[in-house]
User: What shape does this take?
Amino acid sequence: MTINRKICPAGLKNNPNKNLTAIKHITIHCTGNYSASATAKSHADYVYGGSGGAQTSWHYTIDGKEIWQHFEDSRSCWHAGDGTDGPGNTTSIALEICVNDKAAFKKACENAAWLTAGLLKKHGLGVDKIVQHNNWSGKNCPAELRSGAWGVTWAGFLEMVKKELAPVPVPAPSNTAPVAPSTPAPPAPAVGMYRVRKTWADAASQKGAFILLANAKKCADENPGFSVFDSKGAAVYSGKTSAPAVNNPSQPPSSSVPPASSSTPPSDVIKEGSLVTIKPGTKSYYPGGPKIPAWVISDFSHRVTQVTLNGKPVAKGGKACVLLGKKASKKTGKESAGVNTWVDKDSLKMA
Ligand SMILES: [Zn+2]
Assistant: This one.
């Protein structure tokens, strides 16, 4: 999906003109406007025009076709009904899902789930940080999700988000073919991470948290006495030196993985485990693929976590691609869940 932007200027009466104190939650609303013309775009125009002078504003509106952004993620808006200094208005990013077209409501929810998943990743938040407007003020909002009357329940919406967070590429628009098989190779959980510690209880000993089990195992192997725990605290692997009995399918060292393509020598140095950046000015993940949000290029380096799928090189839009399964903040170096998208190798360079 494309995130269309019509960012409100300062000085409007609907603009609190201040930053969020922190980004802690994603707040979900339904617009409650059942007029057929109440699309995401028309709401973008409405908010951009000052919301008719009302102290009403939010960050994104989503319908069955489009996503429109009205305020930067970092800015405070008036949407939660909990006051100018309320935690809803000062610590959450607000999404409004359109109800202008009942037949397209499920698609609108899927689009909102895609956006929500992207925001969770971008801001390092878990699925438990998605809240209803109701959470802040008690208002019956998002009404259609709370009642489930339009075919999508709140639980169903959260499932949509979890699906988006699963280690498959960012979804293509609905009218094009999916960009990956439905059975992705990496055995990663939908949301949880694999943690490497001495014992689960000894959180202070943690060496790292990994999306990919293979990477967690590698870390455990490098640290005698450490084990890999899943998100529920169950030990799933003990390092080589301590417990050889645990299932450890032998894996070739990453250096023996064949390159995905031999046609472009300069990018062939990019292999599994490489830390790369996306070349500035790159518009889409691969020719004809999803558009790359600016922050993906400007704010993060990316870790190549896969170069083949089911043993074969991956090509998209006619270009050899690698999977960027993790990202690392350019500022802090902190690694987190990546964009999980196959990306044209020629758009990448070693970080
Ligand atoms: Zn609301």
